[in-house]
Amino acid sequence: MRFLSLPIVCVCLPLIIIQASPTESTSFLFNGFHAKNISLSGIAEVDGRLVRLTNTSSRLFGRAFYPYPIRIKDASTNAVSSFSSIFVFCITPLLAPTLGGHGMAFVMSPSLDSTGIFPSQYLGMLNASDNGNSSNHVFAVEFDTVQDLEFEDINDNHVGINLNSMFSTNSTAAGYWSPSQNASQNASKTPINLKSGDVIQAWIDYDGHRQQLNVSIATIDQTRPQIPLLSVKLNLSEVLKENTYVGFSGSTGVIAGTHRVLSWSFNSNGVAKSLDLSKLPSVVRKVPTVATIQFKVLVSIAVVVSFLILTSLVGLLLYKRSQREIVESWELEFGLHRYSYKDLVLATRKFHEKELLGVGGFGRVYRGVLPKSGFEIAVKRLSRESDQGEREFIAEMASTGRLRHRNLVQLLGWSRRKGELLLVYDYMQNGSLDKLLFGKPSTVLRWEQRRKVVKGIAAGMLYLHEGWEQQILHRDIKASNVLLDADMNAKLGDFGLARLYEHGQNPHTTRVVGTLGYLAPEFARTGKATTATDVYSFGALLLEVVTGRRPIEHRGGNAEDFLLVEGVWELYTNGRLLEAVDKKLDGLFNVEEVEKVLILGLLCSHPDPLARPAMRQVVQILSNEAPLPPLPPYHVNLSSQRPHTDDKEFRSYSSSSAKSWSTLDASTHLSAR
């Protein structure tokens, strides 16, 4: 009976487990998963014989861990044992291979408890409050598909080593090294797109004696690379506890993606057993055998015959498609997802007026729901009547197509049919800032929310000016271009007027464009946009957010227009600065914070561009990392800075001096455009 029972066990269990005594190693091999063999939390589930950490839902996480603690460290010597893990995983994005969301990780943690864990950029491992704490005792190897500048990610497709933090101690672009055939040449690196949907095998080996960690990845049609992708000296004795849990975590952000683990081998004190790739779950490609190759040959013959029969039909379809959707020269350069025009028509209910979110200078913006995924989007439909439409469309594609920052509205893709141009963005549930400031009287933004808005937009502008490979001048920073998501996070949008320059390059003269009240005086005179002109616009925005008043209020008739910056300056010089604060706040604000933001707004809106701070200094001031500098004399009359242009977009205005704040009707808030 002993010998008869052995094959029955092998057939029934898709895994091999060796659970030794606490002084020995723990080893297991999963060539497929069952719910009873794995501890799941979040939205993770066993789907067939594979573990699916996440699905197409946004801003959620999933975790799958071996259900028993594993002894990984000798308490008497504090030495970490030599452990090894091999696993096969697959990351499939919801929208396109260029848009990740958000990534996954191999994790070693002292607890299975997932209470308080954050999704999105935290990958289902940590949260904002415990990020970086040595008490976490978390070691992870991340496979990150979104570049988070908050954590200083190197790109949106990398492998990193994390110790108690989302900041990687070491990271590198995903790929594998291949030894050169020529001994005199160095090895070459083959890139791997983690979010391509391809099946990838990973090897993680830690030598406890040498304190050496090696990490390798490769597509499953490749053998294990001879040269590790990451190889670092690493002392894990202070990171890992004596007993730890091992497993995987993954998360989605605004954009969702499916993260799957197909098979897994682990050894807590030795080399993990190799995986049998022929036993991978049927959802993935299997390693070809002789029989499958013969079958594929027969299928190939049938395909060739079918191809010859259908060639003319396919050619006709391709011709019609090429006529319907013209491939642009810059499409491959930006790598953006191209949406079907039909899908966008369905998503917006044929661009129904009830889905209209707003109307801008170059078109209309609609809310939409993608028919297949149910994903909410915003569709910017550029005006056919606009002579600048196509030029602004290309400018926005160029400037935002590859930008990734939490305080910039993310461009998801585009579409074009005949002469109609469309841009697809992440949908912002709370709309634009100007509607919240000047919309329904019952809607009041608390001071904490306003402070969060200005800090967020400052961070986004710093990224545009200094954080990207080129310098981007937005040129149209204003309240209506600040959008807020479901969590009231502020994001800067509408890059239709943006311009790109190399860092250090002098900007050239352009046609003066923008919105009165946000335009720097020198830009109106010279037509040269600089980072200082963007800072001026941001200063106007700061004053607008704190006061609840527009940069220019047109009084009508012969009455002089009210200039917000002059009005606030007058109150500042008379020692009555707090009178400028929005009455809707009803006194519920931090006085020191409000005064600092108002003075910073005056500093950013100073008529002398040399007196304005750079955005890096602005961010430091708002984060209490730098003091507020003295405010230089405000001797220039802004009303004299009349634009020297005949452009219809501008209207002349005059105001020899600002009227007393108390004599102005603060309830009148008209658009400056």
UniProtKB/TrEMBL annotation:
Tell me the segments the record calls region Disordered. 632-673
Which CDD domains does the annotation name? lectin_legume_LecRK_Arcelin_ConA, STKc_IRAK
Q: Quote the subcellular location field of this record.
A: Cell membrane; Membrane
Question: Which residues belong to any copy of the Protein kinase domain?
Answer: 351-638
Q: Does the keyword Repressor apply?
A: no
From the UniProt record, list the reaction(s) this protein catalyses: L-threonyl-[protein] + ATP = O-phospho-L-threonyl-[protein] + ADP + H(+); L-seryl-[protein] + ATP = O-phospho-L-seryl-[protein] + ADP + H(+)
Does the record bear Cell membrane in its keywords?
Answer: yes
Q: What is its EC number?
A: 2.7.11.1
Q: Which GO terms describe its biological process?
A: defense response to bacterium; defense response to oomycetes
Task: State the membrane topology.
Answer: Single-pass type I membrane protein
Matching InterPro entries, A to Z?
ConA-like_dom_sf, Kinase-like_dom_sf, L-type_Lectin-RKs, Legume_lectin_dom, Prot_kinase_dom, Protein_kinase_ATP_BS, Ser/Thr_kinase_AS
Q: Which range is the signal sequence, renumbered to this chain?
A: 1-20
Family membership noted in the UniProt record: In the C-terminal section; belongs to the protein kinase superfamily. Ser/Thr protein kinase family. In the N-terminal section; belongs to the leguminous lectin family.
- Quote the protein name from its UniProt record: non-specific serine/threonine protein kinase
